[in-house]
Every structure is written in C-alpha cells, then in structure tokens.
Amino acid sequence: MNIKSFVLVSVAALALANCSTPQKTVAQPEKFQLRTFQDSISYAMGISSGENLREMPGGIFNLAVFEKGLKESFKDSLAIELDEAASRKLFQKLNDTMQKIEKIKREEQIAATRAEGTAFLEENAKKPGVVTTESGLQYEVLREGNGEKPGPGDRVKVNYEGKLLDGTVFDSSYKRGEPLVFGVSQVINGWTEGLQLMSIGSKYRFYIPQDLAYGERGAGKDIKPYATLIFDVELLEVLK
C-alpha cells in the first residue's frame, strides 16, 4: 500500500470511529441575566463600587480580602472585629496615603505638561512664518487684513478655534455658529497681545505659552494647569 492509500484508509477509519463513538454533551453554563429589580440594583452597585476601588493604586487594595469582609459582614459573623476607633485610623491612613499619591501624580503631570509646552514652542519657533514676540507669544499670519487694529480699550468681534497641543478642540465659535464679542483687555494675556497685532479681516494662529494663557489654574476639564494652547483667531470687527 502506497502512502496516499494509507492516508485515505486512515482518514476513513477515523471518521467511522468518530461516528460510532457516542459524543458527550457538555452542559453550557447559563448566561448571566438580570431578572429582577434586586438583581439590577445589586449589579449596578457592584459596578459602581468596583470602578471606585479600581482607581486605588496597586498595593493598597486586596480584592480577595475585601470579598471576605463583605461576605462576613452580610452574615454578621466577622473573623476579626474592628472597633470604630481602629476603623477610623485605618481610613485616615488611607486618606493620607491617597492624598500623597495624588499630589505626586499631579506634580508629575504638571512637569510633563510644562516640558511638553516648552519643547513644542522651541521647535515651533524654527518654522518658517512663525514669529516670536518679546513676551514669548508666537503667531503665524494665515490671512492678512487691511482694516484698523484694535487697542487695549476696544471691544472686538472674532471667530476662533482653540486647540491643545494634541489637536483636541476645546472651544470653537465656528462650531457654535456665533462670533464672540469681548474687550481686548478682558481675555488671557496671549490674546490681548495678539489681537493688537491684527488688522480687521486678518486671521492669525496664536501659539500661547502657559504663562500667557491660564497658567497654574488651567481652565475647564480640558485645559490642564500650565498648558500651552493654540488658537486660530479671525478678527471680524473692532467696536469702539
């Protein structure tokens, strides 16, 4: 018998053996379902608790011990009793630890944000068409107008779009479909300086260092402390 015939016979024998051998039925686990209000609210509370506990840094929280304490508490049969004073000391220590960790994390984020802004501005200053003023403001002329320039006491009407260095748009009058009117001296320093460089009809791109933007306080949920910002600004009108 040659190799080809042997393979065919072997395959046929294997197929017959499989047909003659009873197949075991493996019970499938029942799909998890929320059947009642009690199920749903319990599951929701579990998710909420889990999300909060997941935020705790590694090394502080032990899920297995937490489950043990939770189950024993429900049974009112605790392996180890913790009096109120002992519990209070534990939670105070946890609070102090979390605050220290958050402080370190915040300082690291601030250092990274400042370093990112500095590096960006250093490279950006080398690009053709980018002008750096004495204050550190950088700007680029996208379109030059020929109207009057506003002074510090004027009000202006502008369209604009603000971005973070990663390209995230955090504010845009274009998206709202409505220009903004404000006093030249009523905005961040980078805008106050930049607007007075523009003629009506101009469109500039401002690269604003953190110290001419929102500095250590940041703004809203998107602008972190010490963030460098980019604005495209279109000067539509100067209002006396």
TrEMBL record:
Q: What is the lineage of its organism?
A: Bacteria, Pseudomonadati, Bacteroidota, Flavobacteriia, Flavobacteriales
Organism, per UniProt?
Leeuwenhoekiella parthenopeia
> What EC number is given for this enzyme?
5.2.1.8
| Catalytic activity from the UniProt record | [protein]-peptidylproline (omega=180) = [protein]-peptidylproline (omega=0)
User: Is Signal given among the entry's keywords?
Assistant: yes
Instruction: Output the Pfam families linked to this UniProt entry.
Output: FKBP_C (PF00254), FKBP_N (PF01346)
What name appears for this protein in its UniProt entry? Answer: Peptidyl-prolyl cis-trans isomerase
Q: Which domain of life is it from?
A: Bacteria
Q: What is the enzyme's main class?
A: isomerase
